[in-house]
Amino acid sequence: MRPSHESPFQSLTVPITRASTIVFDSLDDFVNRFTRQPDGFSYGVTGTPTTRALEKEIASLENGAHCVVFPSGQAALTAAALALLKSGDHVLVTDGAYGPFRDFCVRWLAQLGIEVGFYPANCRGAFSEYVRPNTRLIHIEAPASLTMEMPDIPAIVKAARAGGIRTMMDNTWASTVAYRPLEHGVDLSIEAASKLFGGHSDLLMGTVSTNDFELHRKLRDVQSTVGLSVSPDEAALVLRGLHTLELRYKAQAKSTLKIAEWLDEHPMVERVHYPALRSDQDFDLWQRDFTSAGCVLSFSTKHWDLGRYRRFFAKLNHFAIGASWGGVHSLAAFYPGEVHDMRAYKTTELPLIRLSIGLEDVDTLVSELQAAFG
Question: Which residues carry this modification: N6-(pyridoxal phosphate)lysine (predicted)?
Fold first, then answer.
């Protein structure tokens, strides 16, 4: 009796390949293993077929040629800076940068002999006044973390290119659905995949995409040298999340705009920070450059003390209290006025409530906020 042929197996999902050690066919292959970089397999820290599949998918979404994944959004930001800067260089960072990255620049890059400067988060027009002869990198975040200012991205990129300066952009809020930095001349597009790419608040990851092979090689070198490995299990979770990215993004953006408009009319609200809101000071820039809006907004209130904020948060139910954002569950976070003290170009000194809008019924969320306002 003839043995039956093994049945072929096909799947709609990418298999999870776990490995630390990579084996080789010959001594020469082993000795020359590092020539396989940046995208070949030499050791588990730089990836397996699962992480390569994710990198390829994200590069495609970014309309880019290359992508490297890192174990968190912060790791992606810091790796990009380390890949592009050396002692004696100057880096320009938006004044509205994600707090941990700003802290990394001020505390750690300075120790490496790298000068750090800041520019206004809502910078428009003449950007060259912030550039020095030794400026080698400009960091962009749009909109700004917490206060949501929108910079003039084309003006910054134009000034950077005129001076031969590299640019990196934290594009997590817009994601690839609403804006693709590489299509607009930015050298490195960075996403905290922990947020919208993953979409379910259950993983940590960051991504850096580029069209420049030499920058890609440097990023992979940083990943290998510093040991910034990514779990293939989490890579598989992000691959799964990407299947619903656009659907989630647009549904959450629609609900967020409705809540922003409701808050904008509330008598207890001083100001809503959300660039897709028509009353926002940066609405024109958002409308010019972006095709949709994110699921995060901030707002300040009129004359509340800490006790009033405590009562507001105590009445939240569908809004969980926590950091991060971008998942399917709504979140609320509080930032006291002192959080703005580090900034060189303040646009507010008021405490902020930040909301991340999930996929719950929007009318239910509005009713809950109304009850919390009391």
Answer: 195
